[in-house]
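Figure 6 in text form: structure in, sequence out.
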């Protein structure tokens, strides 16, 4: 470094002489060269100061390890996650693991990390939301163990205050929704040929089969679950005791011999408590919509029912089709007032012994889930068209 610093100083002296003695020099070129020399000199002097500091013990010297010599133990978190994902999927497929994969798998298994890789778990959750989009409208949590969610109870109106008078606290109160957990499982028998799949193909297979089945079951509970020895949902979201619905309050029932009329729809919409229409969605089967609602579409008269961007809307609220509801039953409401919790996220295990007689491998996907509607708030109303017997 000292030699180069001397060269720089000599060259700067030469440039100074050229500027003083030669009127025809290229000023732009010399100015540029001087800036480059100044920058290089400053860098070299800085290096010298650091070297002196290390020699005197003023600055700690940190050894920089050659990345090519790093062991698997020093791999960054991203690389470890990839190794664990590969090891986890290979173990399900019955494929041998590399030394690094065995190390990553045994390390994760002995820690508090989830058994299922995070990337695979995220794909499963994403797939569940694709299969059952209503989950996106509910409040879904991932809290281990029993879960209690605070909800609004008595809510008094704001009061007018007279200046300097005492203010009495409102008699507001909070309620709660308590969630426990119910096992939801899906058992898949697969051919031993799965061992010949690529890792990515096998992961897609697991996600597709297990996530879709679990998601459809959870969606079913959200619509028709009783909340007794099983998850509950919108069926207990009425204003009455225990979330019951009642005609004239939050339910419209059309007799079997009668035809559904526009007045039935507007009356039901009017029963929805104020404020909930902003996020409200209609939920029903396609059979219900096309048998009783579609015929009311009449743009020359009103915009009661519209079709736009591939979706149907009733009084401005989107229609969500689900096979979980039977023909003649529909709900309108804000599904963020349904609370769900995965007290245990989806796990996947395999057994080669149970499928021995069929030369297959059994894969069991399971999660622990519970859900409940926040009843008594007026966030949901129900439509019923009595079916002929």
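Output sequence:
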């Amino acid at each position: 470094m000292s030699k180069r610093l001397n060269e720089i100083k000599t060259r700067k002296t030469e440039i100074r002489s050229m500027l003083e003695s030669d009127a025809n020099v290229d000023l732009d070129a010399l100015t540029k060269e001087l800036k480059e020399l100044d920058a290089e000199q400053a860098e070299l002097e800085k290096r010298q100061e650091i070297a002196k500091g290390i020699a005197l013990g003023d600055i700690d010297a940190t050894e920089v390890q050659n990345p090519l010599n790093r062991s698997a133990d020093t791999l960054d978190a991203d690389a470890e996650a990839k190794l664990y994902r590969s090891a986890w999927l290979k173990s399900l497929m019955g494929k041998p693991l590399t030394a690094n994969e065995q190390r990553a798998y045994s390390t994760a298994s002995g820690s508090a990390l989830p058994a299922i890789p995070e990337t695979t778990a995220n794909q499963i959750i994403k797939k569940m939301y694709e299969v059952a989009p209503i989950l996106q409208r509910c409040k879904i949590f991932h809290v281990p163990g029993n879960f209690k969610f605070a909800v609004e109870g008595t809510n008094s109106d704001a009061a007018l205050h007279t200046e300097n008078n005492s203010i009495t606290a409102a008699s507001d109160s909070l309620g709660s929704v308590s969630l426990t957990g119910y096992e939801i499982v899906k058992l898949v028998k697969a051919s031993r040929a799965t061992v010949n799949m690529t890792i990515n193909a096998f992961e897609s297979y697991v996600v597709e089969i297990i996530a879709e089945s679990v998601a459809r079951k959870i969606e079913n509970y959200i619509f028709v679950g009783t909340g007794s020895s099983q998850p509950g949902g919108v069926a207990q979201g009425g204003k009455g005791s225990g979330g019951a619905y009642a005609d004239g309050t939050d339910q419209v029932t059309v007799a079997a011999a009668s035809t559904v009329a526009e007045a039935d729809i507007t009356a039901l919409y009017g029963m929805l408590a104020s404020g909930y229409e902003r996020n409200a969605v209609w939920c029903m089967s396609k059979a219900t919509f096309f048998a009783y609602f579609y015929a009311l579409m009449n743009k020359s008269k009103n915009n009661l029912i519209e079709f736009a961007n591939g979706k149907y809307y009733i009084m401005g609220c989107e229609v969500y089709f689900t096979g979980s509801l039977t023909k003649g039953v529909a709900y309108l409401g804000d599904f963020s007032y349904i609370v769900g919790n995965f007290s245990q996220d989806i796990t996947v295990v395999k057994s080669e012994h149970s499928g021995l007689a069929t030369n297959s491998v059994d894969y069991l996907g399971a999660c622990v889930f519970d859900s409940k509607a926040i009843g008594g708030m007026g966030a949901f109303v129900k439509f019923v068209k009595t079916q002929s017997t």
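Caption detail: The longest strand covers residues 338-351.
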